[in-house]
Amino acid sequence: MVVLRLRNAHKRQYAFICLSIVGFIMYRYLGMPAGGRRMSRKMGLNASSSQFTLEGEPFSHPGGSVHYFRVPRAYWRDRLMKMKACGINTLTTYVPWSLHQPERQVFNFHTQLDLEAYINLAAQLGLWVILRPGPYISSDLDLGGLPSWLLRDRNMKLRTTYPGFTEAVNVFFDKLIPKVLPLQFKKGGPIIAVQLENEYGSFGQDESYMLFIKEALQSRGISELLLTSDNHDGLKSGGVNGAIQTVKLQKLNQKDIQNLNAIQPNSPTLVMECWTGWYDVWGDLHHVLPPEDLVSTVREILRRGMSINLYMFHGGSSFGFMSGALANPSYKALVPSYDYDAPLTEAGEYTPKYHLLRDLFSRYNSESFPDMPTLHYREAYEPAIMYQHLSLWDALSLTEGPLKSPTPVNMENLPVNNGNGQSYGYTLYETTITSGGLLKSGDNIRDRALVFVDRTFIGLFKHRNLELAVPDGKGQRTLSLLVENCGRVHRGRDLDKQRKGLVGDILLNNIPLRDFTIYSLDMKPSFIDSLYQAPWKNLPQIPSFPGFFMGRLFAYGYPSDTFVKLPGWGKGVVFINGLNLGRYWSIGPQQTLYLPGPFLNSGINQIIVFEEQEAEYKIQFEDTPDLGMAVDIQ
Fold this sequence. Notes:
The protein is of the alpha+beta class. The protein is about 20% helix and about 25% strand.
């Protein structure tokens, strides 16, 4: 493994060379003089014949998906250069509405979410761009990338022309589209195509909706080629006039291609998502696709003269609480790793798939590919010993609220975050009881709840576990339910029903519980930062759970990538310097959390772990990932 270490003098020389290369690329490939002023073009990507053309010339685009929101910004260039070195010329990315507009009046297009900078970087590196702005994107994200505050409207009908939804889409597009307009191909930028929504043919039920999305984009100035994308189930009903249809698949099925060609004859075929692997869910195995299976499919697609986009070329990580969930056949939440068994690993390492694809693409390209970038060094740091503890109950004073309510209030309708409700994390519901008996959830707990009487743990509610015995006791006692949103479903017809927390009555001896005190524990950076002023105590021999544990990681010199491992811990969340790395859970399959070097400081790094039920009191750091026992995708 080559260790990337640049001295200052070398950095200056390297920067000069990079600027020279960028200038050449901007002039040669993007029609831009080195000063950055773009030259307009008249003809963009066209699909009116059996082959794509760009400015009237035949165009083949081996493409790959890399999501800027799943890759540390410091590594954007590294990942895209590795893409370029594999022979790929087109970058595809989704745009997550939920991250860019976390509250109705709050927009974020900065730092990690600077979409313009990401697209401009692609241009500098000589990559074309296919933009997938949604508004719904799926992408295996919580609620498919839709913001949870939409669900505050009890009558909300997501992905339809329901006024409450279209008005919100228009507000978002009013902010988003002006940022990407100058980056379109005809204006001298790299964006050659824009996708309308995502997989609407499989799950959509409003015939007017796709036309609304098309007009919403075009009326704001989008003028490049429009696409739709569906799997075989949705091809027949997922299209809209004026947009070419594309297909998603993992193995080439002749019937799928025939169906697509029958729907749009005399048009080029684009496999918009050739799945290089798959996502993982908690309690299952790590899904892998053998390299030879992927390469066989890609080879056949290229042999037939079709265009392809690899989903994912590099998956990255669903940091924080971004991960979605499955509804069928039963609820299962996705893990934070989005490694996806892609050609580049979660940490940007080359895989056998990468090398095989690079060799395959080279046979279809007369130009030589750039050299493969060197790999970053990875470090197995010394374990971090937890030395301080904070009970959950002692942290409640730092939350927003609390709210007093006669009946349960679901997470999204809590009066927090400037009236936008709670999006992610945990919500604590407390009430008073005067007897024991049988507690029934009635399937109103979403998705999982730890139950306490006078702060003593008595049991767990989860899907399929709808009853719990409450022990008898004297006098008034406090019943507490710590409810976790494990991830909203990211696809399907029931997105409107993805409200979290307590979504209805909880019964004790068949009588609804009333008079709740509700605490929002969304664990946003502002809350984690406030914990440093909390009444932490030296770690006791028998700490209480749930609780927060604090430790330190020492990273001397230039911090390197590492992987966090928590043997002996149960279930919780890891925060490094206030950043949420994601959930861990002993049931697996994922056993390590990716910790990128850019998230670390040189010297002392603060680690806070929120653990629900058991802890080993130290955290290990390894130089290799552990995503669990693997199983081939069927």
